[in-house]
Design brief:
Largest sheet: 9 strands, mixed
CATH class of the largest domain: Alpha Beta
Distance between the termini: 63 Å
Number of strands: 14
Bound molecules: adenosine-5'-triphosphate, magnesium ion
CATH architecture of the largest domain: 3-Layer(aba) Sandwich
Number of domains: 2
Radius of gyration: 26 Å
Strand content: 15-25%
Helix content: 25-40%
Shape: elongated
CATH superfamily of the largest domain: P-loop containing nucleotide triphosphate hydrolases
Order of helices and strands: HEEEEHEHEHEHEEHEHEHEEHEHHH
CATH topology of the largest domain: Rossmann fold
Number of helices: 12
Amino acid sequence: MEGVTNRDEILKALEVVIDPELHRSIVELDMVRSIDISPNGVVDVTVSLTTPGCPIKGHFQATVADAASALEGVTHVNVYFDVLTDTQKATLQQKLGRASLPEGALAQVANVICVGSGKGGVGKSTLTANIAAALAGEGKRVGILDADVWGYSIPRMYGLGATRPPVSAERKIIPLEAHGVKVMSIGFFVEEDAAVVWRGPMLHKALTQFLQDVAWGALDYLLVDLPPGTGDVSMTLAQLLPQAQFLIVTTPQQTAQKVARRSAHMAQKVSLEICGVVENMSSFTTPSGERFTIFGEGGGQELADELDVPLLGKVPLTMPLREQADGGLPLVIEDPDDPAAQAIRHLARGLLAMTPLELPVLEPVEASPSGRTGSHQPDESRKPVGMSLPMA
Ligand SMILES: Nc1ncnc2c1ncn2[C@@H]1O[C@H](COP(=O)(O)OP(=O)(O)OP(=O)(O)O)[C@@H](O)[C@H]1O
Ligand SMILES: [Mg+2]
């Protein structure tokens, strides 16, 4: 068969065929299902598509034929198509970065709950801090991942300063612990008030590390305090944690609800399950018992109805909730009878009721014998442990 090319050569030639949607070569994506070469130089290539009605079939048809015909000895190229199996699609998704945490990274975490909102300042961090403390108060093993890398506030709310978390013998970052809750925040690694400038890939890497290189251990709940808005962080986390649930915080007013709805749509788009809505700053009751609905009324319920998820709680405005957030001790611990604290404890029990504790987020696997090495040396510089985080 002198002069007729071989399979490897054809595969090499097909590396130039890029999937216009996935931006990678069809060879790298394992989409070349089969290559058959006849002695007369006719080559049959079968390409697997993600969907049968793939609109870019024509593109593949032409580029595959061109690439293969350019080889010596090839007289004709037939391009055939079939569709990836579910298993192949799952492998492809993994290649593309979805669910790319190493297996077992969060194997002992039963529930991941991302606390988000469309808008800033609606009380996500305050609620995260207090719900976590309330769950710990119910005897649960709880962690908080402060994913607000620009405006981190959990360290302050938990009275944790700029202490650098220690690194274990296995080179895992050990979360700091306060009020029975394990906490990890970018705030532990940067100077106070330092402006952290993040670019997409860096952000992705830092969050990945917060999930995979932190010794979270066995947790019933990992609460993730999201930054405001529907940007990069949420997308990144959704990619890393497709099993996470999303808890939406809103205020009673119409506009807040609208923005919250946007974040709900984002959650749905990235396939995060929305577990419920919390209405914060619901009303204000004076010491004499007079009740004011400062930010209006009913927004939380409306949003919950619209999304067909439960309204898990209505947390009133109270002075102590704000003061305690600033004082480093969650209100549910300091004054569990405060109306806001009561509402949050109620909310936490609602979460307990709806989240099963047996299901692991990822299948547990045996610790990999090779381990991960070299990425986080406990050096003494001001650099974050093991992270190439850009800091101003
Ligand atoms: N129910 C409440 N009663 C009184 N003050 C509250 C209440 N909820 C939140 N606050 C106060 O509102 C401010 C904003 O809250 P918080 O920082 O938790 O919001 P956030 O949604 O996390 O904000 P960001 O979007 O900036 O991260 C804080 O000063 C907090 O103490
Ligand atoms: Mg916040």
